[in-house]
Amino acid sequence: MRLAVIPGDGIGPEVIAEALKVLGEVVPAAEITRYDLGAARWHATGELLPESVLGELRQHDAILLGAVGDPSVPSGILERGLLLRLRFELDHHVNLRPARLYPGVRSPLADPPEIDMVVVREGTEGPYAGNGGLLRKDTPHEIATEVSINTSFGVERVVRDAFARAANRPRRHLTLVHKTNVLTHAGSLWSRVVEEVSLQHPDVTVAYQHVDAATIHLVTDPGRYDVIVTDNLFGDILTDLAAAVTGGIGLAASGNMDVTRRNPSMFEPVHGSAPDIAGQGIADPTAAVLSVALLLDHLGEHESARRIEASVAFDLATRDHQSPGATYAIGDRLAALVSSNVRTG
Amino acid sequence: MRLAVIPGDGIGPEVIAEALKVLGEVVPAAEITRYDLGAARWHATGELLPESVLGELRQHDAILLGAVGDPSVPSGILERGLLLRLRFELDHHVNLRPARLYPGVRSPLADPPEIDMVVVREGTEGPYAGNGGLLRKDTPHEIATEVSINTSFGVERVVRDAFARAANRPRRHLTLVHKTNVLTHAGSLWSRVVEEVSLQHPDVTVAYQHVDAATIHLVTDPGRYDVIVTDNLFGDILTDLAAAVTGGIGLAASGNMDVTRRNPSMFEPVHGSAPDIAGQGIADPTAAVLSVALLLDHLGEHESARRIEASVAFDLATRDHQSPGATYAIGDRLAALVSSNVRTG
Ligand SMILES: CC(C)[C@H](C(=O)O)[C@@H](O)C(=O)O
Ligand SMILES: CC(C)[C@H](C(=O)O)[C@@H](O)C(=O)O
């Protein structure tokens, strides 16, 4: 197993160290190459993602990423030039984001139901396409545009993936989230594709919700969701909210996947670089560890993935959530649990 | 006071009847003209908003709208052809949406703080501009686009309005919500305008949050918000979520305002037509009643607006939230409270 690791910015390196500790317990022979992409490299050299590095990354089975973003870098530079460039160059069309309320974890909701959903977020088009511009900048007649681009090719492949996932889950339910009553063109395409693909999955029940209504139900009735399929921007918003109601982005893992396997997929915690707590050794590495489980699942190492998930579930059920311990201590605990092959549920 | 009333679809007519009952207590001399726009008219005549009706609407001091939308009409027809057309034709650039957690109201949050915020949502541009299209429809090469259009003219006027509102509130705090790290063009314009206008408001503290992070804080720390200013689509999403955490869209009022007063402003509950409960007489008219208070404020009838708000606050603090009563009964209660000039706080 050849893995590229991009620790990145802020708490990225801190949580990645623990994720690798846990990975070492299940795949001790993994070959790991580190890449120093991120804010520091940009400051030092002006480089974001050199072609040569991109070429090297392509030679790996998967990529593990910590976080990208730093207050010392103008907004958008690292995000568009590094993180989104990786997602687009490596055709990460399925952005997979599970949200599960683990036993023992406190939700900000008063009366949380069982929550176990997965958001299949489109990852290579929509409003993230980078299409748009500024006209008459800095004049009273300035116009800024952002173009959401949606193709039947791009929409169909994520919708197919979402249906396949739904068909493999006990509840077999899929919700399309969009804003078809306002974004009528993109909404029409998404709705038609979902309708067409649903014909091949009579076993999956299908629902539709407007994105605004979905945010309401994510706080009043999150248990209703099984698989959500949605566009890049709505997926960005919904997955942060879904993470919040299931205990916070400190626990939320994600996979940026090319499900055709032509390019290596990239796994990363949803939390980002969290500059406010960086360098203090207090970041929770759980989301990074769960991202390793997603990575292993993607590479077919399901048994190892289940061991990691079971260890996280055990730790979350038993940890003192007021003082869960330092970053390294949580990593040590999870590594020990994985090595002792703890099982839950 | 010449008011145009559009009861509209679903529960619209039911809640509007109660809103007018309450209005009658404070402005008995209001001259009211009803317009039967909505699903029924469209089915009967194919008309959505005839020019002649639009011309008549312009002759009024304000418009009170119930709800627009019906499952029997394809998605987008009524929304774009009637509701959004009214907002755009009448230049409703400030979409004002207060979110307050009233004493006695149950939030879905476990530990809700005091919440008293107002979202100033841009109402006439952004992704709602209706710009975009379909190319190669129904082929494997279909492309659907949606263009978000943002002008310095359009952004500046809502940002100015938001700062003016913030300056008049005790906390004097304004949060710009956008996604500047991805939507770099529109994000750049919004950020620059906020920065410029902030120079004229040294008394207002300014914060920025990405829309995804804002959804997290709306459930983990909603007390932090005072005034939020944001674009049309983010505002749509955030205001439904803000309504949810403050007890539901059954209580959320809104104003679609042309603050220059060149066109009549339009006031409406956020909840929409709720076809699932329409015709049963069980819809909560409180949001419609609070929309009347916003309408009166806009027309300078502040004393009457305060009376209505105080009555709603009193009713919410004392009502049995399990069985708040039928639509008409809540309306009767609120009308009686207004007529007895109840005061709270
Ligand atoms: C950092 C940012 C570009 C990114 C996104 O918007 O996709 C992040 O919010 C995420 O969800 O992974
Ligand atoms: C019905 C729909 C067009 C509308 C919107 O998106 O603005 C509604 O959701 C709202 O918030 O008033």
Describe the model.
- 2 copies of one chain form a homodimer.
- Chain A is built from 11 helices and 12 strands.
- With 345 residues, chain A is an alpha/beta fold.
- The first copy, chain A, folds into 2 domains: 1-100 and 258-345, 3-Layer(aba) Sandwich (Isopropylmalate Dehydrogenase); 107-246, Isopropylmalate Dehydrogenase, CATH 3.40.718.10.
- Chains A and B meet through helix 4, strand 6, strand 7, helix 6 and helix 7 of A and helix 4, strand 6, strand 7, helix 6 and helix 7 of B.
- The structure holds 3-isopropylmalic acid (IPM) (2 copies).
- One 3-isopropylmalic acid (IPM) sits between chains A (69, 79, 83-84, 236, 270, 272) and B (181-182, 212).
Which helices and strands occur, and which strands form pairs?
The structure is a homodimer of 345-residue chains.
Chain A: E1 2-8, H1 12-26, E2 31-34, H2 39-45, H3 51-58, E3 62-67, H4 77-89, E4 94-100, E5 116-122, E6 126-135, E7 143-151, H5 152-167, E8 173-178, H6 184-199, E9 205-210, H7 211-220, E10 227-230, H8 232-245, E11 253-257, E12 265-269, H9 286-298, H10 302-318, H11 327-339
Parallel strand pairs in A: 1-2, 1-3, 3-12, 5-10, 8-9, 8-10
Antiparallel strand pairs in A: 4-5, 4-11, 6-7, 11-12
Helix pairs in contact in A: 1-9, 1-11, 5-6, 7-8, 9-10, 10-11
Cofactor (chains A, B): Mg(2+); Mn(2+)
Family (chains A, B): Belongs to the isocitrate and isopropylmalate dehydrogenases family. LeuB type 2 subfamily.
Site (Important for catalysis) (chains A, B): 128, 179
